[in-house]
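Quick review question:
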């Protein structure tokens, strides 16, 4: 079994490369493991590395050392490969994926707690042929994520602060909603939407929890649809939406669906965001990829530890 640390040296506010190299050295010395470290040097680099390693057919345990974007890339590289499993050593700003594990999140910081953990199978979201681990969002929340990076470099803002700054900018200077046609399995809905977001996990945007009941291994995806609203209404509804109180919001404005496939079509580009990684297109197709990812973590850890 090979243990490979895929490190994003640009993740977070401080380069943790030296710490992770030392971690790999300790594992090699203490347990006689075959360990190696690889550094990404470009967007998409972690996915390419992970895929090439998985394609060798060798038994692999990969450690995504970075933030949610690094987790996203490594997952896309190994999804569907039976010989490869992954975990995460958090080095990013938000680390929303690991919030799903509740108190065990802190254990992921040291690979000593990870290397011999049991493997579990997680669902993924297939979005236009690319996999998403936690939440695939489209609309105002994706536009917020798309612009949040310009604030994350500020020493005055943490992950949540960067997200809230981006919310303010998008709220003040840009329209909330757009005209879309949405299919929920076979049901067609045409309306002005603020967002359509499919949830496998529970956290995004530095800790927002739109669907706190979402579970990462139950074969069910929850899609939140919010119709276009005024900026005043958006400001009033944002906090309860972010806190996962969708059941308390006006039912004429919000809907939660468990459709296995959701399709969005528009006459102008839709901004979509998968685990913090953004792209644009005029059609988005999101569907369940059941038990597609092999993941390991601390013994006894639960990806649904915080599910309600």
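Suggested answer, residue by residue:
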């Amino acid at each position: 079994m090979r243990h490979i640390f895929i490190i994003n040296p640009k993740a977070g506010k401080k380069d943790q490369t030296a710490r992770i190299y030392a971690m790999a050295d300790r594992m090699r010395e203490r347990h006689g493991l075959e360990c190696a470290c690889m550094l990404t040097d470009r967007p998409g680099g972690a996915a390419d590395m992970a895929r090439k390693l998985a394609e060798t057919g060798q038994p692999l345990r990969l450690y995504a050392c970075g933030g949610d974007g690094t987790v996203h890339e490594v997952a896309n590289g190994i999804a569907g490969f039976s010989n490869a499993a992954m975990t995460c050593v958090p080095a990013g700003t938000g680390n929303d994926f690991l919030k799903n594990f509740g108190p065990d999140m802190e254990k992921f910081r040291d690979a000593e707690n990870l290397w011999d953990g049991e493997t579990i199978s997680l669902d993924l979201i297939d979005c236009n042929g690319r996999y998403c681990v936690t939440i695939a969002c489209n609309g105002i929340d994706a536009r917020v994520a798309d612009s949040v990076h310009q604030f994350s470099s500020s020493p005055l803002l943490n992950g949540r602060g960067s997200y809230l700054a981006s919310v303010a900018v998008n709220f003040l200077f840009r329209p909330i909603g757009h005209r879309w046609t949405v299919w929920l399995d076979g049901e067609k809905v045409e309306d002005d939407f603020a967002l359509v977001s499919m949830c496998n996990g529970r956290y995004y945007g530095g800790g927002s929890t739109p669907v706190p009941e979402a579970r990462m291994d139950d074969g069910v995806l929850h899609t939140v649809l919010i119709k276009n609203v005024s900026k005043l209404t958006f400001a009033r509804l944002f906090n309860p939406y972010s806190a996962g109180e969708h059941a308390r919001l006006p039912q004429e404005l919000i809907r939660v669906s468990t459709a296995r496939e959701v399709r969005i079509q528009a006459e102008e580009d839709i901004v979509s965001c998968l685990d913090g990684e953004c792209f644009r297109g005029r059609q988005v197709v999101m569907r369940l990829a059941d038990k597609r990812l092999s993941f390991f973590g601390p013994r006894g850890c639960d990806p649904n530890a915080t599910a309600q």
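Why it works: The first helix runs from residue 17 to 31. The chain has a mean pLDDT of 92.
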